[in-house]
Amino acid sequence: MREPGAAAGIVDCHVHVGLTKYRPVEDYRDSMRRCCIDRAVLVQYLGNADNAYLERVVQEDPEVFTGIGLVDPDDPAAPRQIDELARRGVLGGVRLPARVRGDVWKAMDAHGLTASVTGPFTDVVDDTFLDVVDHHPGVHFRLEHLGWLRFADDPAPYPGFRRFLRLAERPNTSASWSGFFLNAATPYPYPDAVPYLRMCLAAFGADRLMWSGDWNRAGGTDADYAAAVAHVTDHMTFLGPDERDRVLGRSAATILGRVSWV
């Protein structure tokens, strides 16, 4: 296990906490301590546009947590809600599906917020989403879970994933290495993910790649969470030491975190 405190430390870029569907932050703190996680980006879970709990957690401990909220993109009030979220200044971004068009992106751009982009993969690689990225340079687009790609749906020569990698040509994008337990067709340490990870590293560079251990997975244990760190440190042998540090923490701290984190 990598020791905490080196560089930016280990930062999990995608953690769900809550009072109903997901476990509360106190449970996550316990796992952080046991698994040597230094900081985390709390991301609102789909179906819950009430960000009050997330904001309270971040306000109470901004040295450890930052957050990404959620709005209903189909609600006509969504642009105004984004304005209000930005004015409160607690959360640094909003979780949005790639299919969204129109004034929601204008509001995001006006405030320089991060968009944590959800799938499905076909929407992420669609040409119209590429246009959204190009026309909103003030937004940073963090592409969740390798674009929500199920690896078995895009075998070699990887035509879909090569379309996804066009997004790496845009400087206002990054990608998260997460969701393997759902998207891989092979068990841990997910050897079928390796070709996609190598291509992703070559296209984005380690400065725009970030890790999550999927703490919130159904039935997940601390052993699973610790293994998710070891997935990077012990099994991704194509990463150099500096690249591992960036993927495990520094990139998320720089792109999604706070100034004091870096």
UniProtKB/TrEMBL annotation:
Gene3D superfamilies per UniProt: Metal-dependent hydrolases
Origin: domain of life: Bacteria
GO molecular function, a single term: hydrolase activity
Chain ranges of the Amidohydrolase-related domain: 24-257
Protein name, entry field: Amidohydrolase-related domain-containing protein
